[in-house]
Design brief:
By secondary structure, the protein is of the alpha+beta class. The protein is built from six helices and six strands; from the N terminus they run E-H-H-E-E-H-H-H-E-H-E-E. A hairpin with a 6-residue loop joins strand 2 and strand 3. The longest helix is centred in the middle third of the chain and has 37 residues.
């Protein structure tokens, strides 16, 4: 099997560009096997393909070229334990940022889909009724359903509330203007009669 390769051939073998190989040389990461003193043509030995593979692997782990050079100069193919721990912390922080970004994008996508589907508005007359209300500041409307299930619903059952037909509920925002986050909201649900106030509900 061929052992010596011109730089173009070696770049194809390693699946990197010639520009990348020259950059690795400038950074002291990969010195050519030989350089023609007259033409400046560079050649590489087959065994150096493993060196390129190690460099690419360390890059995938998040090491900078400077950090990779330190590993190469140390004569090892692996970073030390301290550097690995630093990269783990950096990855965890990046994951946290990405999860937050993903949640915001999913929320935005949901809002856009809901907006697209809300093509027809209908106005209906409903009977005036007393309501059981629950007011608090919530992170966003996404969590309101959880409060209905875990707090409001059980409190209404404990108070003996009856919800006659047609059943309906609504919310009132108490902030000066609409907010998507940190909302002062009052949830109201129609009931048959006014009951004594509780620690949770106001009628």
């Amino acid at each position: 099997m061929k052992q010596i390769y011109k730089i173009g051939e070696f770049s194809k073998l390693c699946r990197v560009t010639v520009r990348t190989l020259r950059h690795y040389e400038d950074q002291g990461l990969l010195v050519p096997y030989a350089v023609d003193p007259f033409t400046g043509y560079r050649t590489y030995h087959l065994c150096q393909a493993q060196d390129v593979g190690n460099i690419l692997h360390l890059k995938r782990l998040g090491l900078s070229l400077e950090e990779i050079r330190e590993v190469v100069e140390r004569g090892d193919n692996r970073p030390d334990e301290k550097l690995v721990e630093q990269k783990i912390v950096a990855c965890e922080e990046q994951l946290r940022r990405l999860r937050g970004q993903l949640e915001e994008l999913q929320s935005l996508n949901k809002q856009l889909n809901e907006k697209q589907n809300m093509k027809v508005f209908q106005f209906k007359r409903i009977p005036a009724r007393p309501v059981a209300s629950y007011r608090r500041r919530i992170e966003s409307y996404d969590v309101l359903g959880k409060y209905c299930v875990e707090i409001i619903g059980p409190a209404m059952m404990q108070a003996g509330c009856v919800c006659p037909e047609p059943q309906y509920c609504y919310t009132i925002e108490h902030d000066a203007e609409h907010r998507d986050r940190d909302v002062d909201v009052e949830y109201c649900e129609a009931v048959a009669e006014v009951m004594p106030d509780t620690d949770v509900l106001h009628f």
